Amino acid sequence: MRSSSISLKLGTLGGMLAATLPSLHRDKVFEAVVLAGLGACVSFVVSLVLKWLLKRLKAWILKRRDLN
């Protein structure tokens, strides 16, 4: 019973890919890959900046607390 379930899933996946591949255009796929890479880079840089800002904010709050 288990092997038929796997073959059913693989057959469904293969049929889905066979139906969608002809409709994909190379330039659109390339554009999606570039935009995904750009989005990942921007997300990484923003997370680094936020981490740096949080570190500075904590240090500033602790410094003010020690002065009072």
Write the layout of secondary structure elements.
Elements: H1 2-20, H2 26-67
Q: What about the largest sheet?
A: none
How helix-rich are the residues, as a percent range?
over 70%
Morphology: elongated
User: SSE order, as H and E?
Assistant: HH
Would you count the extended β strands for me? Answer: 0
Oligomer designation: single chain
How is this structure best described in words?
The structure is a single chain. The chain has about 70 residues and is an all-alpha fold. It has a domain at about 25-68. It is about 90% helix and about 0% strand. The protein contains two helices and no strands.
Brief descriptors of the model:
68 residues; mainly alpha; 2 helices; 90% helix
Quick synopsis:
The protein is an all-alpha fold.
